[in-house]
Structure formats: C-alpha cells, structure tokens
Amino acid sequence: MTSVETLAAGPLFGLPLPELWFALVFAMLGTFLFLDGFDFGAGAIFATLDDDEARETVLSAIGPFWDGNEVWLVVFGGALFAAFPSVYANLFSRHYLLMFGILGALILRGLAPEMYEQRHDERWQRWWGRSFVAGSVLAPFLLGAFAGNWLAGSPRSFTLVGVVVGVTVTALTVVSGAAFLRLKAQSALPESVRRIGTGAVAAYLLSVILTLGVLAVRLPAGVDALLTAPVIGLVVASIVLAGGYVVTLRRGSNLAALAAAAGLTYGLIAVVAVVMYPSVDPAANLTVADAIVSTLPLNLMSIGAALLLPLVATYFVVLYSAFSGPISAEEAY
User: CA nearest 292: which of 80, 7, 98?
Assistant: First the structure.
C-alpha cells in the first residue's frame, strides 16, 4: 500500500485516537484556564488594591505572560475544529453571544493595562483600572458559562448551570491569581492578597458543591452521572488540594500553592470531561465516535500535533524561565 493508503487504513499504531483527541482538547482548555487564569485572578485582585505602587506591581507581574498564555485558547479552538468540526460548528453557532462576550472581555482585559499606563491622572487610571478588572472577571465567568452549557447540553447561552459554573471558574482564577502574585511579588504586595486567596479557595469549593447539585438536577442521567468512581475521586482530590493550597500559601510556599491551584484547575476540567464522555456534544447527541473526523485527516493531525505541541511547550518553558523569580522594584508593565 502507498503511504496515503496506509494512513487511511486505520489509526496510527492502533491507538484510540478519537479518545486521545477528546482528552487533548480538554487538556488544552485546562492549560488555558490555568495559565491565563492566574492573569484573570490578578486582575480581580487588582480591584482590592488602593495603593498605586501595589497596582503597578500586579501589572508588572503579569506583563510578560498574559498575551502568550492566550495562545492556548487559540490552540483549544483549533484542536476542537480540527478533530470535531461538527461540535465546533454547533457550539459556536448555539453560543455565539457568549463567544462574542468572551472575545470582548479578552480585548478589554488586554487593552486596559496598555491604556492605564499611557496617562497618570486619577480619572484616566480609575476608568482603565475598572476596565481591566471588568475584563478579568467577565472573561472567566463567560468561559465558565460556555463550559457549563456545553456539559449540560443547553441550547441557550444564559442558564442556571452556566451561571454557577461561571462563578466557580471565576473563583478558581482568583485562587490561581493570589498564588501567582505571592510568588512573583512576595512582600511587595499586602498580606490581604493571601487572605483573598484563602477566601477564594473556600468560595471555589462551595461553588463546586452548588455546581454538582445543579448538574444532578439538570443532567439527563441525574445523580448517576456524578456518582462514579472517577468523579468522586476527583472531588476528593480537589478537597485535599484546596487544603494544601491554604497551608502552603500561609507558610509562604507560593510555588507549591500555585501547583495546588493548577491541580484544582485540571481537576475541574477533568470532571467536565469525565461527566460528558462518551458524548462530545450532548445537545446534538453526538458521541466522540460520531463527531471525530475520518481516519486519514485524524492520523495526519496526530502526526502534526506530535511535532508541534512539543515546540509550543518549549516556547513556554523558555518564556517562564526567562522571567522566573520575583519581580524587582524597578520593573514596570
């Protein structure tokens, strides 16, 4: 057989590529939610700071990272389109208002710090500071609403499930943001940042409980969809990680606290994926097997992903290595 015929004959090396791509799509979503999540959380914490120097410190901490972190949203959308094009089309057509809202919030979050630094009169900075906070809070809330509606198979953009998941995701970004700011700024920010992180992780756990309760009512399978070993294990792991986050944040082990926040983020995305599987678009009754592209493009995409994703990961290793360590007093956004 020719190489094309070989690639079209079956999955590469007999791998379960549809399931692997399903997991990869959610892993990319989790990576975006964690990496850009601590930027969102820093923006929310920005609202609690009255001191100009402290606000400049927040902007300096996220300055080298936020635009690079958003690459993962593009990667997530590209992977979803490439592997499950019908799901991509369905989701973005059903929830186009949410999509525009997310994009608008991201634009506002990116534009506001740039404008904030252009002038230093009080009224100007107050306006753009509020815009920065609004974009930082709205983006994760709307992203969470999108994920909640996707999981519940809702054809509408604004639902109870969407609201509770949006609140959960927003609280989670504040958890990540507090750990990141403590890691990068350390004593340059007030102790209130640590207290905000501790309060946010408690709010996150309460929101998770509320989310599970709403899903138990709204999902077709009801409670049975949630009372599975993987979901119970992930919830228990989240409680343990939340406890570890509080302890490490109080002890000043900020890198460990940020790692715990990463675990909470990927755990939340894993719950969504586990509850949804084998469906990939509940509203359209599409399973992973139904929605995946044909064998030839699937194999070609898998080869491409195996080559390109390590390069993307290497870029982020270089980026975070170049800007590792605490920020200095003279650094500016």
Answer: 80
Say yes or no to pLDDT of 292 above 90: yes
State pLDDT tens for residues 3-40. Answer: 666 666 667 777 899 999 999 999 999 999 999 999 99
Sign for the pseudo-dihedral over CA of 224, 226, 231, 234: negative
Phi-psi region of 189 (alpha: psi -120 to 50; beta: other; left: phi over 0): beta
Distance of alpha carbon 237 from alpha carbon 264, whole angstroms: 8
Give which of 329, 326, 205 is closest to 254, Cα–Cα: 326
Sorted by sequence, the CB contacts under 8 Å of residue 8 that are 6+ apart come out as: 294, 295, 296, 299
The class (CATH top level) of 12-315 is mainly alpha
Q: How many CB atoms lie within 10 A of CB 226?
A: 18
pLDDT tens by residue, 31-58: 999 999 999 999 999 999 988 888 989 9
DSSP-derived secondary structure for 48-66? T---HHHHHHHHHHHTTTH
What residue ranges do the domains of the chain occupy? 12-315
What's the sign of the alpha-carbon dihedral 257, 261, 264, 266?
negative
3-state class of 84 per DSSP?
coil
